[in-house]
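Lecture notes, structural biology module. Today: joint structure prediction for complexes of two components.
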Amino acid sequence: MCTLHPEEEAHLMAMASGGQPTRTASPRPLVTASIAAPRSLFDVCWDDVLIPQVAVYLSLKDLFNLRCCSRTAQRFVEAALEKRQELHLSGNNTKNIDVAFRVLARCCQRLEVLHLACCRWLTDELLLPLLANNKKRLWAVNLNECVNITALSLQPIIVECKELRVLKLSKCQWLTTGAVDALTLHQSKLVEFDISYCGAIGERCLIIFFRKLNKLTVLSLANTPSVTDQVLIQIGNYCRELEHINVIGCAAISDYGVHALTVHCLRLRTLLIRRCPRVTELSLAPLRQRRLYIDRPQPDVGLNAYNLNDFYPSDFLVY
Amino acid sequence: MVTPTIKLESSEGVIFPTEVRVAMVSETIKTMLDHFAVQNDENAIVPLHSVSTFTLGKILAWANHHKDDDDQSTEGEELKPRRPYAISPWDAIFLMVNSTTLLEIILAAKQLQIKGLLELTYNVVANMIRGKTPEEIRFIFNIPEDVSPSVDGELRWKDLFLWPMDF
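The predicted structure, tokenised, for the full assembly:
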């Protein structure tokens, strides 16, 4: 939609044609018909000005308020939403958010980043239409703690989002071995993966998963009971670009698994390993030499070398 | 040496004698002058048929105030995504105008390709929308209300317009 008036178009054509733009006197009469002023905001060109220069800097709330103003405003906002590339609704559980999401699911066509963590209102019925419209470009999907969706919504993400790099599914109790197997089969570019608190996943599918998805740099497996030393050995052998790993509360791992990470993951910068009772300083000491961040405090050994309590004042009385 | 000037003519035929350096903030005028080398022609008149007298006066006031800015040297930054920035007090007062005038300035600055003024006006428009209710936005921008429950029916109206979101 362009709002140039015919006189303005003619003027721009004359300027562009390269004719003599300056002259010693104006042949136009001084009294000319006044050019109609833009009557409203939407007379300004949408594609060149309003959408890329104004709408992208407005929040979703502002866009929906603008959408309520008139029919033209509604069409404008929906045109702006069509070009939107990021959707950040994490933690948003306000009234009417599901109705707004239906509008977003209908309008958005070019989403690349989708953050919907902790959205208790989110259901398969709401999410599937949005995924159907945006599956080609999505590369970051955050569904942490979306407890009311099921693997039905995950299927188009796994099968059809070929550019996926970030997938967060923490506290999704509905995540199963089958879903991880499907991820192993269909995905190959994941660099960030979060399956914390997913108790229904088996060990075997994880071993195969990390053998295939070997580009991971950020990994969270916190409180997932099926994470064993064998899983960590596979991670160490195949995911050598790993930089940040979270295994808090993985009670099944021990020094053998951490040693595998130590030997092979040379770029490791963060190791979160609280509440792993079978991991001792024997395997952590080499990692501390590399000055990476470990959230378990180092035991204080050096200062206890000399027990100051061994000295008693009475010893000096001998002299 | 006399400062080189150029005469700009508004759509109503009013002549604005302008320093060439000030007029150069407009890429359109700059291109004309570069191509036709008329900087020394004291009688040269550049007609701007699509810019009204009031709007041209506002634009030249802004250009005169910002003639020493380094706008030209920041053209490379156009490839970077723009971030909303704080509007200077002078600019804020300068653009404390009604929405019709602001939109006229946008259209004129776009035709004259004055990049700094365009970015400023875009930010002002975004700020005029940010945090406002639909009634306020309608009032600020003279948006006619072309929908009502009696015309569209209650159910369709509710579906068509999500009344103000609280998220």
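Point to remember: Chain A has a mean pLDDT of 83.
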